[in-house]
Specification:
With 123 residues, the chain is α+β, with helices and mostly antiparallel strands. It is built from three helices and six strands; from the N terminus they run βααββββαβ. The protein has a four-stranded antiparallel beta sheet with strand order 2-5-1-6. Strands 3-4 form a two-stranded antiparallel ribbon. Strand 3 and strand 4 form a beta hairpin. The mean pLDDT is 88.
Length: 123
């Protein structure tokens, strides 16, 4: 079965709304994860730390430049993911529509190519 990554994307506003109701959000997220486990589709799920604690390594110039977060130009931040093993893109979309998310957040659905689809060295 194909794998799909549900990428959680938030804005400053949606992240603030989520943090204002963090206990409720954590409870509904745990329930959602349990539903995916029972359905046998969840391979992995992780949330990310505060973007202000991260860095960006920028390869735009001749040498990589490291910049501390937060990232003022970013309108949407990657906040975490769910990796699913489902039968189709439509099934992944149906799961994505059920993700507990604050208003303004988005879930990006991307297929993860199998190892047989990735060009091998020397081909």
């Amino acid at each position: 079965m194909p794998k799909y990554l549900l990428i959680m994307r938030g804005t400053d506003e949606s992240n603030a709304a989520m943090m204002a109701n963090i206990d409720e959000m954590m409870t509904t997220t745990r329930q959602f994860i349990e539903e995916m486990v029972k359905a046998g589709v969840l391979l992995a799920a992780e949330g990310l730390d505060d973007p202000g604690q991260g860095v960006v390594v920028d390869f735009s110039g001749e040498v990589p430049v490291v910049t501390d977060g937060p990232y003022g130009e970013t309108k949407e931040l990657f906040g975490g993911f769910f990796l699913l093993d489902v039968a189709s893109k439509q099934e992944a979309v149906e799961w994505a529509k059920r993700v507990p998310a604050a208003p303004g957040a988005k879930i990006e659905v991307r297929r993860v190519p199998g190892s047989d689809e990735v060009p091998q060295v020397g081909e």
